[in-house]
Write a structure and sequence with these properties.
Blueprint: E1 2-3, E2 17-22, E3 28-33, E4 37-42, E5 50-55, E6 61-66, E7 73-77, E8 85-88, E9 94-98, E10 103-108, E11 114-119, E12 124-129, E13 135-140, E14 144-149, E15 154-160, E16 167-172, E17 178-183, E18 188-192, H1 193-198, E19 206-208, E20 217-220, E21 226-230, E22 238-242, E23 247-248, E24 263-268, E25 274-279, E26 286-288
Antiparallel strand pairs: 1-26, 2-3, 3-4, 4-5, 6-7, 8-9, 9-10, 10-11, 12-13, 13-14, 14-15, 16-17, 17-18, 18-19, 20-21, 21-22, 22-23, 24-25, 25-26
Family: Belongs to the WD repeat UTP18 family.
Pfam family, one: WD40
Keywords: Nucleus, Repeat, rRNA processing, WD repeat
Length: about 300
């Protein structure tokens, strides 16, 4: 793994970054944050020139994401009391909004209407989709994971995340093999997705204990070989798990000096050639994963 020039070096943010994401089909990185701006950069690993930056008036960005086709950016603000968290559905035509008091709302992008709602006990701390988008895993603050069938809006299963008192995050691998649940204590449990769909008491394949503060971000790489994990409560609290061997890479973070700081968002490029994160210093550190040949 090689450290590159920051992804947003051409225009660092004046405040903490909250979102970083690679475009689904172009060599472009998007950053957004509390300075009310949203920026796009051409990623070459050398100079990463700025393409465009827009200012969103009175809109400190809490979360920003590309639509599945990459033609639209969706953003929510800290100023919006009811809905800050959302996920873009895998089939691309809808968003799943995390509301208050355990509600999840499915909103179609075409008409921008809520077509169905689901409710869990406790607050929703994260959602993850099965590869075809038919099912959603919702993690609750109580450490319970609910499995919903989106077509029927029915809860088809639920299980307790093993050893978890307070849940904080969740992610699913794109190949449908793995589900990762993060907790307040810093533990990340990695499950077989199939076992989570079949059993109400699945056992983790691995409990990763390398983070010591709440796990606030979990992201699988596109080939489902790496799980990136982070806590925004601590500087340099980012780790990567090699999934085939279920072992944590010892060479990340790569530098002895601080680069990562407090990371709130993580992403891999479409073919895993690059990895970036959003930190509280307004930077998007960029890394080249040399094992992967393509962007």
């Amino acid at each position: 793994m090689k450290k590159c020039l920051h992804g947003n070096a051409a225009r660092p943010s004046a405040d903490a970054l909250t979102s970083v994401q690679f475009h689904p089909n172009a060599q472009v990185l998007m950053t957004a944050g509390l300075d009310q701006s949203l920026s796009l950069f051409q990623v070459d690993g050398k100079s990463n020139p700025q393409i465009q930056s827009i200012r969103l008036e009175k809109f400190p960005v809490h979360r920003a994401a590309f639509s599945r086709d990459g033609e639209t950016v969706i953003a929510t603000s800290l100023n919006e009391a009811r809905v800050k968290e959302f996920s873009v559905c895998p089939e691309g035509g809808a968003l799943l909004l995390s509301g208050t008091r355990g509600y999840l709302h499915l909103l179609t992008l075409k008409t921008r209407e809520v077509v169905s709602s689901m409710k869990i006990n406790g607050e929703v701390v994260g959602v993850a989709f099965s590869p075809d988008g038919s099912k959603v895993f919702a993690n609750s603050e109580e450490g319970e994971v609910y499995v919903w069938d989106l077509r029927s809006s029915r809860c088809v299963s639920r299980f307790s995340d093993e050893g978890c008192v307070t849940g904080t995050s969740i992610a699913a691998s794109r190949d449908g093999r793995y589900l990762a649940c993060g907790s307040q204590s810093g533990v990340v449990n990695v499950y077989s997705q199939e076992a989570c769909l079949r059993s109400d008491k699945p056992r983790p394949l691995k409990a990763v204990m390398n983070l010591l503060t709440p796990v606030t971000a979990l992201t699988f790489n596109p080939s489902s070989e790496i799980l990136a994990m982070a806590s925004r409560s601590e500087d340099e609290a980012v780790r990567m798990l090699h999934l085939p061997s279920l072992s944590v890479f010892s060479n990340f973070p790569v530098s002895k000096r601080k680069i990562v700081y407090r990371a709130s968002s993580l992403d891999f490029s479409p073919h895993s050639g690059f990895f970036s994160l959003a930190n509280n210093k307004g930077h998007a550190p960029l890394f080249r994963l040399l094992h992967y040949k393509d962007f």
